[in-house]
Amino acid sequence: MKQVFAWRSMLFVPITNDRFIQSGLKQPADAIQLDLEDSVALDLKAQARARVAEVSKQCHEQGKDVIVRVNRPWRHLVRDIEASVGPHVHALTLPKVPDAGFVRSVAEIIEEVEIERGMTPGHTRLIVMVEDAEGLHNMNEIAAAHPRVCAMIIGAEDLAVSLQMAVTPDSLYVPNVMAVAACRRAGIAPVGFVGSVADFADREAFQKTVERAAALGFEGAFCIHPSQVPAANAAFAPSAEAVDRARRLIKVFEEEKARGRWACTFEGRMVDAPVVKQAQRVVEKGEAFGL
Asked: Rounded to whole angstroms, how far apart are CA atoms 197 and 156?
């Protein structure tokens, strides 16, 4: 079984806003995502970069994994990489990824910086964002572009602009399911959900959205508001009851297998090898998140 993806909730925090940083650190998010992109005005980009080392260290000291979302234009991106690669930053989020070659070029720069700073090559992972028609066309190659890539997400708002479509569950369903398939083929984690990350005001609706995402195979989500974090954490980890049921199912199956039977009944439903694999995955996720 592959390793459980560690970040159920990745909470965006504008790196230039100390109040938001302090608020973010109080949330139960699995990772803090320091934003250098959309939430930072153009004239504040240099100031934002200058803060990454200090703020990432602060987050690390308070037990948070750190992701940094960088900018897309190369002139900004190279500076962002140089400012962000360090021992306290676990991953960079790459927006508007067009193709696999772009990912490989970014990975080459990251490796140069890691070596220059005495870090172990490969420390800095990548979360890739597919946000336009070109990226959607190249999604399979993007997901498998480089060993640093650990996850992929559909950027709903930008993709809708590129495809000239509305941001609705109908319009976003196919790209997101395609992303899940591409990620599974490449052995990385699909993150996200069918909807817009901007829809945070209705907490009950967001809870249903992330629960649906988990059922579709997603393993975590970006959050732009602290209120979204508990919902994401609950959706992308099994409940204690689900873990207990999975353990009992596995036990019954193993007992039947010892008698030479490779299928059995559990709680009125047939159980065979694929069902057991799903149950094992539930147990592994539960143990990874402390259940």
From this structure: 8
